[in-house]
Design brief:
single chain; alpha/beta; Leucine Aminopeptidase, subunit E, domain 1; two-stranded antiparallel ribbon
């Protein structure tokens, strides 16, 4: 997906509180977070926590009293993301499966998960009651709500206060001059394995089109971020276009079932990843929703884009792109014979070339290389590339037999 900047996201380069202004103490922030825990986010306007408001302003999340509650909520979300940050991807680049996903769950910091539950910062949990939020947070540690209240909850709140204070201090200190970006390498000339046969390369076709207009392709691949959050339906992105086209609508054209986001949320919940990132390169399959009417049978959501710490900038590692292509083929081979007729075709957009990602030239080279590597092992698949702009499609044509 082409990532979006949340409307409440700050620009840490322009803090609302000048550098050198006194920040609230950790103890005071901890005290206010304890006071906010019971009423939750919905009670922020009533409780009006002064220290949290100061920290939100210092971090650039609130620009005045009218924005205090929204700014504090945005700050808490950023602090929870900071606590939940998992280590980098496993050195193993094999196709994703339950063992890798379970290991990823174990590597994620439970402090972030428990904090998200405690304050209702997960989708659909904003208005949950205090007992329900505590029960969900306790389940992260596998303890009773009462034991969590007397033990881990105190640590979770204290750590969240520390993350809040760190965000405020970093923003107040001002931007650090960025280091020159390292040059993105080209893909290897050849990986181990046989050269793709000419017949396999003739099975690659490039389309100049919007992805949702394609017909009779079994699997469409969508580029998502590592939180599996699809683009808004009005965004001119592959993710937004597929979300819009797959949605079920009533006779008046109103969306009654946002199929892809619903199924992604179900997968995240079932795998314990709600509110947390998945491993970069992982692929999550969903149905095609309304796109089934165009002959599409599956949508594969590839976690290619990784949000950086400030939530504004994004990064795509070319190896992650290659891992995602490998995972797409692995998933497709596993599901192939579950359909009648069997799955036979896959369509890739120009993965990794969106906001904050690779240059289109680098993305095209890595995508072509990764697909050709997979076709050398699985030459019976038909592959399609799609790009809206002719100049982007031309970057992919040397992997195609199409004119």
């Amino acid at each position: 997906m082409s990532p979006e900047t949340p409307t409440s996201a700050p620009d840490p380069r322009s803090p609302a509180v000048p550098a050198g202004a006194e920040l609230p103490s950790h103890d005071r922030l901890t005290e206010e977070l304890r006071a906010v825990r019971r009423p939750g986010l919905a009670g922020l306007r009533r409780v009006r926590p002064e220290a949290l408001g100061q920290a939100a302003a210092a971090a650039g999340y609130a620009l005045g009293h009218a924005d205090d509650a929204a700014g504090i909520e945005a700050l808490l979300r950023a602090a929870v993301r900071r606590l939940a940050a998992a280590p980098g991807p496993s050195p193993s680049h094999g196709p994703p499966g339950p063992p890798a996903e379970e290991a990823d769950d174990r590597r994620a910091d439970p402090l972030g998960r428990a904090a998200a539950h405690t304050f209702g910062l997960l989708p659909g949990r904003r208005g949950a009651s205090a007992p329900d939020r505590r029960k969900a947070a306790a389940a992260v540690y596998g303890v009773t709500p009462e034991r969590f209240r007397r033990g881990q909850e105190q640590e979770v709140i204290a750590e969240l206060a520390g993350a809040v204070l760190a965000l405020a201090r970093e923003a107040q200190a001002g931007p650090v001059a960025p280091e020159p970006p390292e040059p993105v390498p080209d893909p290897p000339a050849r990986a181990a394995g046989p050269t793709p046969p000419p017949a396999a390369l003739r099975r690659i076709t490039v389309h100049v089109s919007s992805v949702e207009l394609l017909r009779d392709i079994d699997i469409l691949v969508s580029s998502e971020n590592t939180h599996m959050e699809m683009s808004k339906t009005f965004r001119p992105t592959v993710s937004g276009a597929l979300r819009r086209a797959a949605a079920i609508r009533n006779a008046g054209g109103e969306i009654t079932d946002d199929v892809l986001t619903r199924e992604l949320a179900d997968w995240m919940r079932a795998h314990g990843r709600t509110g947390l990132p998945v491993r970069p390169g992982i692929v999550v399959p969903t149905s095609a929703g309304a796109l089934a009417e165009r002959g599409v049978r599956r949508i594969y959501h590839a976690a290619v884009v990784r949000p950086l710490g400030d939530g504004i900038r994004y990064h795509v590692d070319p190896q992650t792109l290659a891992d995602a292509v490998s995972a797409v083929f692995a998933r497709a081979n596993a599901e192939r014979d579950a359909y009648d007729p069997p799955l036979a075709s896959i369509c890739f957009p120009l993965l990794g070339a969106g906001q904050g990602g690779l240059t289109p030239v680098k993305a095209a080279r890595w995508l072509r290389w990764a697909v050709q590597e997979e076709l050398s092992r699985h030459p019976d698949w038909t592959v399609h590339f799609v790009a809206r702009q002719p100049e982007l499609a031309r970057l992919l044509t040397d992997a195609s037999s199409a004119p």
